[in-house]
Amino acid sequence: MEVNNRIYDDLGHLWWDDQAGFDITSLRFCMNPVRYGYFRRQLQAVAAPGEAVLDVGCGGGFLAEAFAEDGYDVTGVDPSANSIVAARAHATVSQLAIDYRVGRGECLPFPDSSFDIVCCCDVLEHVDEPSQVVREISRTLKAGGVFFYDTVNRTPMSWILLIKLWQDWHVAGFSAPNVHVWRKFIKPDELDALMHEAQLSPRERRGITTGRNPAALVPVLRRIRTGQLKGPAIATEFTLRETEDLTVSYIGFAVKQSA
C-alpha cells in the first residue's frame, strides 16, 4: 500500500484557505503553532551557526513563513508543484522573501553545508526512503547545524487514531484514503539509527498529543467531517500540546557532528 501523496497536488491550492479540509487545516491551526513554538524555544538554547533555514517538504509554507517572520533567511522545497505555487503566492501577500523550489527530499538541489537549520516536518512518514532524506538533510547542513523534525510513531495507538479513526471508520473518518500508511510510521529508535548513520547527534525529543481520549474525539471528528467545524475553530476543539508521551506523534532535534 502506497501513501497517497497526490492529495498535496490535488488540494495544493487550498493551503491557506480557511475552508480547506482537516488534513491541511489541522497542520495550519493545530500542529504548526506547537512545533514552531518548540523549535523557537530550542534555538534559544542551542545556537545554530547562522540563520539560513531549509524547510524540506514545506507544503504551502506554514513553517517556512513562521521562520521568515522571525527574521530567518528561508528556503522551502517540496515535490508538489501546486503547493509551491500556493506558498509563493501567500509569501508575496505576506511580503516575505522566501525562496521556494520544487524538489524532493531524497535529492535536495543544494550544495553541501548550505544551511544552518533544516526542518523536515510531517514528511518522513510519507516518503519511500527516509534514510536517504535524512542523509540529504545532513549533507546540506553545516557542522553544528540543527535538524528539526516531527513524525509519527508506529504503535497500536497511532494505528487506532490516524488509520482507523481518521481514515477508515465511517462514523468519524474525514481524511482521504491512505494519506497515512501505518507501516511507514517510524519508531524513535529507528529514527535515531538513521540520524546516527548520517552524522546527526540526536538531542531532545517530545511528544505531541490532543490530550483527549480517542472516544471523546469522535463527536469532534464527526463535526469536522460534516463541515460544521472549519478553519480556526478547529484549533479550539482539537487543541494540540507537547507531552512526554511519544505514543503517537513526536517532535525533536539533532545537531550535525563536526567532520
How much is the radius of gyration in Å?
17 Å
Can you tell me the residue ranges where pLDDT is under 50 for at least 5 consecutive residues? none
Task: Write the element-wise H/E pattern from the N-terminal end onward.
Answer: HHEHEHEEHEHHEHHEE
Helix percentage range:
25-40%
What is the count of helical runs? 9
Distance between the termini: 39 Å
DSSP strand (E) fraction?
Answer: 15-25%
For the sheet with most strands, the description reads: 8 strands, mixed
Question: What structural category characterises the helix and strand content?
Answer: alpha/beta
The tally of strands reads 8
Shape from CA axes? globular
Average pLDDT rating? 88
Q: Biggest sheet, strands in spatial order? A: 3-2-1-4-5-8-6-7
List keywords for this structure.
about 260 residues; alpha/beta
Concise overview:
It contains 9 helices and 8 strands. It has 259 residues and is an alpha/beta fold.
Protein architecture, described:
- The structure is a single chain.
- Helix content is 39%, strand content 21%.
- The protein has helices at 7-10, 22-45, 62-69, 81-93, 130-140, 156-168, 188-197, 214-225, 233-237, and strands spanning 52-56, 73-78, 99-102, 115-121, 141-152, 200-209, 241-243, 249-256.
- Strands 3-2-1-4-5-8-6-7 form an 8-stranded mixed sheet, with helices on both faces.
- Helix 2 packs parallel to helix 3.
- The longest helix is centred in the first third of the chain and has 24 residues, at 22-45.
